[in-house]
Amino acid sequence: MAYGDNVVLDSIDIDVPRGQVVALLGPNGAGKTTTVEILEGFRRRSGGTVDVLGADPEHAPEAWRARVGVVLQSWRDHATWRVTDLLRVVGGYYASYGTAAVPRPWDTDELLDRVGLSEHAGKRIDRLSGGQRRRLDVAVGLVGRPELLFLDEPTTGLDPAGRRDVHELVADLVDLDTTIMLTTHDLAEAEKVADRLLILAGGSIVADGSPDQLRLQLSRSSEVRLRDLATGEVTVHTEPDPTAYLTEVLARRPGEVQVVEVRAASLEDVYLDIVRRAESGDGVGPLPTIDPLREVTR
Amino acid sequence: MSRPSIPASVLRAAVRQARTTLVRKYSTPSGLGNLFVPLVILVVLFWVRDADFSDGLVTAGGYVFAGFLGFGVVAAAIMGVAGELQTEREDGTLLRAKAVPHGMTGHLLSKLLVTPVDALIPVVPAVVGAALLLPEGTMPTGVGRWALLFVVFLLTVAAMMPWGAVLGAVFRSMMGFAWAMIGIYVLAAVSGLFFPATLMPAWAQWLVQATPLYWIGRAFRAVLLPEASGAVEIGGSWNVGLTLVVLLAWAVVGLLVAPVLLRRMARRQSGSLVAAARERVMQRGY
């Protein structure tokens, strides 16, 4: 994706199987929203191929729209409407896409129950709390029973209670067999709700895998703590290759040191490191461990 | 681009959307604020009820009342539609419509249904009040005349709605939009809606005829005022045929231009645009 000569997204290569919850993670300005808007068909791309549910979103027919749910960061639209008004009106547009197996739209009362808004059904939309409002946005995204749901920054601007609200809701959607793609700049959030993280930095995907895989594969250095048995002094060494270091130390000083702890860098350390390097313009540098990882997850 | 056909289910959804919009709008205090305008106009009518223009050719009350109806159409169909599009682009309404199958089509269809009602609501109390206040012979007497008044009302709304959409699509910043609205107020003030255009110099009369506002006012006056009052119009008579042709021409051109601009606006609609608007409102308050 480029604006004039300014390439903002390059070599984005994502392949998402059905039913997966994927988090597109990256610092502000990394191109998360642009990526998602290209996938949603809301934005024209400058090059490359995109295939979402078997169609190019840019030229997809209206029937394709009925299979894709989009949760928007809304703020003051339909302020005087009641909660049920919005669901009934939006749901009306899906009526002709229902099948015997998948009735569309989703029944309003059932859906409100599902997202935990039943007791607010008759409330004016502008009187909802931030978390409730976001629950309504998710309900609107789900009213057509989509196969694929996009959530762009679902917790931005919410207080901690509202954030937990949304996390619980997303976790609760797992049994819908709906593929979910969400964007966030919050690693803890991504770890909590997603099966798979895609880290977007400097305009390309720099890491792709489950939280555990990323932690193992991307740790560039580990902390090694050793205690000197004679003095009792503990020393900390940051080593890119702890195995080689330990082999060397233990061979050189047999019986003199005790290994207290070998700790891989936390996912947060890894993430911040990647983001820092991508932003400083060094490029993300050699991350040789990523390629084999990609093969594993495909 | 081939014209996509609109499924019946979309029409039903649009009707439901229009109904919800109207019910929610007119059951809140801000929606009822629309009724404040006719109160003002009735006060004005009361003041001018015995005055006249151009040596008694036309009564001021009747003239101003016709002008008020014309301005009501302009306010609802041009300024109302343009202002709504401006707001809906920024608050995410249009983006929501875009995310739904046939949502944008349905949204615009529902606007076609809502706008005439928006235009009509402030008119009803004004008509009732004027019938009580104005001297005999100003308001239509026969059923046919009332029907004609309603037809003129619908025609002028239909002719101006596409232009409201055009202005809403063209002016993309709040400031540019505000200036456009001020421009319309100025035009309304000098377009012969509230006093005969023939009181102005000849060059101004030519300019006035280039705006649809003059013709809208003239259509309402032709229905409401007596035959003889046509003498105050540019050209010296009502010439209803010409008036209708001009209004139809505005409608046709508007219907050709508006879909192109609306399609462009819909295509450009994106989440970052909504996010930017929110950011701006949080920081600057407008």
From TrEMBL, chain A:
Domain ABC transporter: 1-227
Compartments reported by the entry: Cell membrane
Coiled coil: none
Membrane topology: Peripheral membrane protein
Extent of the signal sequence: none
InterPro entries (alphabetical): AAA+_ATPase, ABC_transporter-like_ATP-bd, ABC_transporter-like_CS, ABC_transporter_ATP-binding, P-loop_NTPase
KW Transport (keyword) present: yes
CDD domains to which the protein is assigned, alphabetical: ABC_DR_subfamily_A
Keywords on record: Antibiotic resistance, ATP-binding, Nucleotide-binding, Transport
Principal location class: membrane
GO molecular function (one): ATP binding
Entry's family note: Belongs to the ABC transporter superfamily.
PANTHER family: ABC TRANSPORTER ATP-BINDING PROTEIN, ABC TRANSPORTER ATP-BINDING PROTEIN NATA
Full protein name: Multidrug ABC transporter ATP-binding protein
UniProtKB/TrEMBL annotation, chain B:
Residues annotated as transmembrane: 26-48, 60-82, 112-134, 146-170, 177-197, 240-262
Pfam families to which the protein is assigned, alphabetical: ABC2_membrane_3
Coiled coil segments of this chain: none
Subcellular location field: Membrane
Residue ranges of domain ABC transmembrane type-2 in the record: 29-265
Domain of life: Bacteria
Record key words, sorted: Antibiotic resistance, Membrane, Transmembrane, Transmembrane helix
Membrane-topology annotation of the record: Multi-pass membrane protein
Name under which the protein is recorded: Transport permease protein
Native organism taxonomy: Bacteria, Bacillati, Actinomycetota, Actinomycetes, Micrococcales
